[in-house]
C-alpha cells in the first residue's frame, strides 16, 4: 500500500507542473512523517555541513533533515566539494538501504552533474530534468526514455518550455 501511495505522489508531482519545487530528496520525503516539515523560509542563511556530505543552507534545514534521519550530525568546516547530484545520490542510496527500497535515486554524469534523463526504477517512469536536477513538467513517460535534447531553454532557476 505504501508503494502505491509513493507512486501516486510521484505521478501527482510530475503532472502538477511543480517542476521547480522538487528533487530526488522530495521523492524520499513523500513517505516521511509530516511532523518533520518545519518552515525554514525565514531562517537565517548560514551554511553548514552534515555527516552525510550535504551542505544545508541553514540550521533549520539541517534540523528538518535530522528529524527524518536522527543519525545526522553537523561536521565542523565546509563539506568536501561534492556536487548536489552526488550528495543526493549518496543520501538516497543510504536511505534505500535502511528503510525505503523504492526511493528514487538520481543518476549523475561523471562530472557530478545531473543526467538530463532521470528514471525511477520502481515506477518505470522517466523524465527530463534541468541542469539543477529539477524535473521538467510534461516530460514524464512510462517505460521509455523521453527525448529531452533541444526542447527546452533554461533561464537561471526557471524553466521555460518551448516546443521546437
Automatic annotation (TrEMBL):
<feature type="disulfide bond">
    <location>
        <begin position="119"/>
        <end position="126"/>
    </location>
</feature>
<dbReference type="Pfam" id="PF07648">
    <property type="entry name" value="Kazal_2"/>
</dbReference>
<dbReference type="InterPro" id="IPR036857">
    <property type="entry name" value="Thyroglobulin_1_sf"/>
</dbReference>
<keyword id="KW-1015">Disulfide bond</keyword>
<keyword id="KW-0677">Repeat</keyword>
<keyword id="KW-0964">Secreted</keyword>
<dbReference type="InterPro" id="IPR000716">
    <property type="entry name" value="Thyroglobulin_1"/>
</dbReference>
<dbReference type="Pfam" id="PF00086">
    <property type="entry name" value="Thyroglobulin_1"/>
</dbReference>
<feature type="disulfide bond">
    <location>
        <begin position="128"/>
        <end position="148"/>
    </location>
</feature>
<dbReference type="InterPro" id="IPR036058">
    <property type="entry name" value="Kazal_dom_sf"/>
</dbReference>
<dbReference type="GO" id="GO:0005615">
    <property type="term" value="C:extracellular space"/>
</dbReference>
<feature type="domain" description="Thyroglobulin type-1">
    <location>
        <begin position="82"/>
        <end position="148"/>
    </location>
</feature>
<feature type="signal peptide">
    <location>
        <begin position="1"/>
        <end position="19"/>
    </location>
</feature>
<feature type="domain" description="Kazal-like">
    <location>
        <begin position="30"/>
        <end position="81"/>
    </location>
</feature>
<dbReference type="GO" id="GO:0005604">
    <property type="term" value="C:basement membrane"/>
</dbReference>
<dbReference type="GO" id="GO:0030198">
    <property type="term" value="P:extracellular matrix organization"/>
</dbReference>
<dbReference type="GO" id="GO:0008201">
    <property type="term" value="F:heparin binding"/>
</dbReference>
<protein>
    <submittedName>
        <fullName>SPARC related modular calcium binding 2</fullName>
    </submittedName>
</protein>
<dbReference type="InterPro" id="IPR051950">
    <property type="entry name" value="Dev_reg/Prot_inhib"/>
</dbReference>
<dbReference type="GO" id="GO:0050840">
    <property type="term" value="F:extracellular matrix binding"/>
</dbReference>
<keyword id="KW-0732">Signal</keyword>
<dbReference type="InterPro" id="IPR002350">
    <property type="entry name" value="Kazal_dom"/>
</dbReference>
Amino acid at each position: 500500500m505504501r508503494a502505491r501511495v509513493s507512486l501516486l505522489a510521484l505521478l501527482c508531482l510530475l503532472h502538477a507542473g511543480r517542476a521547480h519545487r522538487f528533487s530526488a530528496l522530495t521523492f524520499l520525503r513523500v513517505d516521511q512523517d509530516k511532523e518533520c516539515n518545519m518552515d525554514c523560509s525565514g531562517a537565517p542563511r548560514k551554511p553548514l555541513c552534515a555527516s552525510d556530505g550535504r551542505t544545508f543552507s541553514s540550521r533549520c534545514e539541517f534540523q528538518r533533515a535530522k528529524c527524518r534521519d536522527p543519525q545526522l550530525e553537523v561536521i565542523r568546516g565546509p563539506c568536501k566539494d561534492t556536487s548536489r547530484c552526488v550528495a543526493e545520490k549518496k543520501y538516497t542510496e543510504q536511505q534505500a538501504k535502511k528503510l525505503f527500497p523504492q526511493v528514487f535515486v538520481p543518476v549523475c554524469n561523471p562530472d557530478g552533474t545531473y543526467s538530463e534523463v532521470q528514471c525511477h526504477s520502481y515506477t518505470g517512469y522517466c523524465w527530463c530534468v534541468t541542469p539543477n536536477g529539477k524535473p521538467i513538467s510534461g516530460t514524464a513517460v512510462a517505460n521509455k526514455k523521453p527525448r529531452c535534447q533541444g526542447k527546452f531553454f533554461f533561464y537561471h532557476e526557471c524553466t521555460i518550455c518551448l516546443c521546437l
